[in-house]
Specification:
By secondary structure, the protein is of the alpha/beta class. It folds into two domains: 10-105 and 112-249, Aspartate Aminotransferase, domain 2, CATH 3.40.640; 252-373, Alpha-Beta Complex (Aspartate Aminotransferase, domain 1), CATH 3.90.1150.10. It contains twelve helices and 13 strands. Helix 3 (38-51) packs parallel to helix 8, helix 4 (62-72) crosses helix 5 (89-97) and helix 4 (62-72) crosses helix 7 (208-218).
């Protein structure tokens, strides 16, 4: 029996780059420059070069990145922000924290990203921005989103926490995920494709004025110490995390490639299985598989998860409750009938182990048991 299967195996990934990581951390400790040390600026420059974007503002986490981006665009009470219903809570939470209203949109059945055909009908005089999420590792349809945004003079903030390094290749727009809208926002939570050893995040933009404003807001609204032009927040990527990210950024393309190869292995193992639908790939984006998420018959995802657990196989359901059904947003009175796809997905999706250290033996063990479960 295959043992020690991890949903994300960060320990083995660390072992491969242990000497580089330990050296980078030791250098920071010896310098004692734990806040705004040299590695923070270096990482911002390195990530900007990787993304081919003008400005990167490192912050404390991905949720802060979203909130600061929204604040930089002046979004607040009475404003509306259009965003998908099927996503992690942080995307919508950042909007609500500023007193703005999240206007939820159902998602596509195939790629689980925002259904761009439903955006325009939801735009009102109060709509200020569209906040797409590049879910599970591939980009939303940015051509359609940018077309609507330009037509109605709306801002676009891309949530790329699950897609750092994914490449968008549209008819009119192209570039790395997060570099097409007014802002891109990401998280460096340890399990991300580019993850640090704690919390971390970043904002990126090609607009120098917006970059300057976001930088000020992240630093208590200040450019000069003790002089505050704006109401801001305290959100910094610490130097040790920046040092770790500088090392791991060098391997990001390799990490994404390894995930893609593992996804291909799963695909082949699940081929012709009528009860298992493998992840869809859009032609306009690369898929870097932050998650490998399959669809199973409705209601079977929870049962399958329990059965996998008995065999020592981890799995996750992203997401068991769509945003419109979350108790925290009950006051918004969302109509559940407007979200048939999100409602369906919550009962059908299950994500299998996916990481850079996944072995062929582990994948065969996982896939064989999933197939056996549906052969009963």
């Amino acid at each position: 029996m295959v043992s020690n299967i991890q949903m994300v195996d960060l320990q083995r990934q660390y072992q491969r780059i242990k000497e580089e990581i330990n050296s980078a951390i030791a250098t920071v400790v010896q310098s004692a420059n734990y806040i705004n040390g040299a590695d923070v600026k270096l990482f911002a420059n390195n990530l900007a070069n990787y993304l081919n974007v003008k400005h990167v503002i490192p912050v404390a986490n991905g949720t802060d990145a979203l909130q600061i981006a929204l604040m930089s665009l002046g979004i607040g009470p009475k404003d509306e922000v259009i965003t998908p219903d099927f996503t992690f809570i942080a995307t919508v939470e950042a909007v609500a924290l500023l007193g703005a209203t999240p206007v939820l949109v159902d998602v596509n059945k195939d790629d689980f990203n925002i259904d761009t055909n439903k955006i325009e009908a939801l735009i009102t005089k109060n709509t200020k921005a569209i906040l797409p999420v590049h879910l599970f590792g591939q980009c939303a349809n940015m051509d359609s989103i940018m077309e609507v945004a330009k037509k109605y003079n709306l801002f676009v903030i891309e949530d790329t926490a699950q897609a750092t390094g994914s490449e968008y290749k549209g008819k009119k727009y192209s570039g790395k995920a997060g570099t097409i809208g007014n802002f891109g926002c990401t998280s460096f939570f340890p399990s991300k494709n580019l993850g640090c050893f704690g919390d971390g995040g970043a904002i990126f933009t090609n607009d120098s004025d917006l970059a300057a404003k976001a930088q000020m807001i992240a630093n208590h609204g200040s450019n000069v110490k003790y002089y505050h032009e704006l109401i801001g927040v305290n959100s910094r990527l610490d130097t040790i995390q920046a040092a770790v990210l500088n090392i791991k950024l060098k391997y990001l393309d390799e990490y994404n490639f390894l995930r893609q190869k593992s996804a291909e292995v799963y695909d082949n193992l699940f081929q012709n299985q009528e009860h298992i639908k493998i992840p869809h790939r859009n032609i306009f984006t690369t898929h870097i598989f932050h998650q490998y998420t399959i669809l199973v018959p409705e209601g079977e995802n929870v049962k399958l998860q329990a059965a996998l657990k008995e065999k020592g196989i981890p799995s996750m359901i992203y997401y068991p409750v769509p945003i419109h059904q979350q108790k925290a947003f009950n006051q918004n009175n969302y109509d559940t009938y407007q979200f048939p796809v999100s409602n369906m997905l919550s009962k059908c999706v299950i994500s299998l182990p996916m990481h850079t250290e996944l072995t062929m033996e582990q994948q065969h063990f996982i896939a064989n048991y999933v197939i056996k479960y549906f052969s009963k």
